[in-house]
Amino acid sequence: MLQTFRCQPISSIVSRSLHPKCSRFCSKHPRTFLQETCRKGQVPTTSAIARSFFRNFSSATNWEEPSGYDTGIRVTNSLRKDRVKVPLILSNKNVATWYACGPTVYDSAHIGHASSYVRFDIIRRILSEFFSIDVVQVMGITDIDDKIIKRSQESDISFSQLTKVYQDEFYQDMDNLNVLPATLYTNVTDHVPQIIAFIQQIINNGYAYAAPSGSVYFDVQAFGPQYGKLSTDNMDTGEAGEPNENLSEKRNARDFALWKAAKPNEPWWTSPWGNGRPGWHIECSAMASGIFGRSLDIHTGGKDLAFPHHTNEIAQCEGCFRSDQWANYFLHSGHLFLKHDVNKMSKSLQNVISIREVLQKYTANQFRLFCLVTKYNNDIEYGDETMQNAISLANQLSSFLSDSDAYVKGQLMCQPIDEAALMQRLSEVRDQFITALADDFNTHKAMEGLMDLVQLGNKQLQNTSKDTSGARSPGVIAAISTYINHVLNSLGVQFTQRNSPGSTASTRTLTSVLDASVEFRNSVRQWALDSSNSMTQNDELTSKEKKKLVMQERAPVLIACDQFRDGLADSGIQIKDRSIEHGTWEFVEKPSKTT
Q1: What burial class does residue 595 get, using C-beta atoms within 10 Å of its C-beta: 0-12 exposed, 13-18 middle, 19+ buried?
Q2: What pairing do the DSSP bridges indicate for beta strands 573-577 and 583-587?
Q3: CB count, 10 Å around CB of 122?
Q4: How far is the C-alpha of 314 from the C-alpha of 302, rounded, in Å?
Q5: What share of the chain is helix, strand, coil (3-state, %, to 5)?
Q6: From its phi and psi, is residue 4 left (phi > 0), alpha (psi between -120 and 50) or beta?
Q7: CA nearest 86: which of 75, 95, 97?
Q8: DSSP character for 515?
Q9: Global confidence as pTM
């Protein structure tokens, strides 16, 4: 439909929306921009009218529902400006092709980046673990651009040396955050020939032109009203190009560089238009298309990338392939803000906290829970209060799994458990959890139900009793803890358990040693606390006095037991004395102390 409009004069398409008195677009046509210009008595420019009309006209029609495999999930697709959730339909059954914008490796990644990568890692895990979809994810790494060149010159090292340091650091940061590695990482400098060929095809199709300087620009006007599928509030005033572009050689201020002519003392590659290097936007289009071809299921990134980066990616790919829809879904994550800071975290604003700094204060599980309790496309506030909430959630989950393990093994005694109520709630949570995930990956709602189940289980297990003769329900508790542990592992929250599947031989050996050590401590402690086995013979003492004397004699033994417990705690192993007869141990998370 839009291609048909492209061939018609603007006036003939929208003439019925002119105000009969002032001959201007007005509120009779429901377009916000045009309403405002008419209300202010201004005559909108032709280009502004065209942009506003086509963007708003296509708010629900610029996206065509693809044919293929319906996953049963509904998502907020940024290609639909009406924000209506649409079915996630994949080109191939149980396989999702996914391109993710990666980092520009000129500096350390910060937690604004981390929140986006963790949130999309959660979505990737949801697709694979809960909906049986194999995800083929490609992540593009920008290892040549203006910032990289500037930093390398300031550091007096080559750009390739600089980018290797920060790319390796990025991989380590993602591993520390338990973010799954991409199926394939692509570096811009490894794909320059493909990028040049991609640009040449856009030129051949009439949507780009070479300037006398040797730079090549995308021709937004020639591309027409299809440009701007991901337009945002700043599109009317924002520039589509990068900083430092030569405006004088552009046909239109909104044109953007595909190829940047070489400058003195900068890296360059040869091309048909002269020495130079790729522009920022073209690299992702060329690399994604080089792997996935003419179409793509899912494209992701922070919402700040919607314009101009993703908008320009779409134009480049659709201009190269002469297609109406390159990527079928764009998912954008919300921004991370520091508490009391209205600006999103950004290196340019110098309000960043590095990933390594955060992991010295909090654990990866705590940061992931911080991300899980907010929906991925909502903004998120980082501060002591929100992180304390994440720590509380982590403690509740870890405590329940530990207590469940102890209860099932007969090491924790409590009043009889309401089996029917727990099993009923488990069944409800299972259904509600999947329903929430299928509703645009609503982890906030999913986690609410999960924590309700945990709190119910904790409440029953904490109702301790010394009476061991009552009925026990280890099967019910085991069923709940197994489900919760499975869900958490599937979402990337992995508490170290004593018998975790896939434990290494060394971990199993450590477990056996700790079991034996804690059992020995239990026996020693039980003997030390039992005054009836005293060898003290003094008939003149009352039983109370004898007990006091025995406790004084055995105090060093109990102190040694406490020191043993405290020493293991420093190493991340917590011993819990659940009764005189029973003590258990568990791993306890600690933030990284490495720099």
Answers
A1: exposed
A2: antiparallel
A3: 22
A4: 16
A5: 50, 15, 35
A6: alpha
A7: 75
A8: H
A9: 0.82
Cα–Cα–Cα angle for 31, 36, 37, rounded to 5 degrees? 105
Q: Are 279 and 260 in contact (CB under 8 A)?
A: yes
Structure tokens at 171: 């991989």
- Are 585 and 499 in contact by the 8 Å Cβ rule? The answer is no
- Please provide the size of the chain in residues: 595
Give me the helices (H) in 213-269, please: 220-223
Amino acid at 173: D
Omega before 272 within 30 of 0, i.e. cis: no
pLDDT tens per residue, range 251-280 = 999 999 999 999 999 999 999 999 999 999
Q: What is the 3-state secondary structure (H, E, C) of 454-465?
A: HHHHHHHHCCEC
What does the buried/exposed string (b/e) look like for 92-120 if buried means 16 or more CB atoms within 10 Å of the residue's CB? eeeebbbbbbbbbbbbbbbbbbbbbbbbb
For 129-141, write each residue's pLDDT tens digit.
999 999 999 999 9
What's the rounded Cα separation, in Å, for the pair 376 and 115? 9
Dihedral in degrees, nearest 10, Cα atoms 412, 416, 417, 418: 180
Closest to 377 (Cα-Cα) out of 322, 314, 291, 304: 304
pLDDT for 489-544, tens place per residue? 999 999 876 555 556 677 778 878 888 888 888 888 888 888 777 766 666 677 78
- The confidence score (pLDDT) of residue 177 equals 97
The Cα–Cα gap between 194 and 392 comes to: 50
Q: Which helix (H) or strand (E) holds 314?
A: helix 311-321
Identify the DSSP state of 411. Answer: -
Long-range contacts of the stretch 209-214 (C-beta < 8 A, 24+): 209/251, 210/259, 210/273, 211/246, 211/249, 211/250, 211/261, 212/249, 213/246, 213/249, 213/261, 213/274, 214/259, 214/261, 214/262, 214/271, 214/273, 214/274, 214/275, 214/276
Burial class (CB in 10 A: 0-12, 13-18, 19+), 174: buried
Apex 338 CA angle, 332 and 343, nearest 5: 65
DSSP state of 438: H
One-letter amino acid at 68 equals G
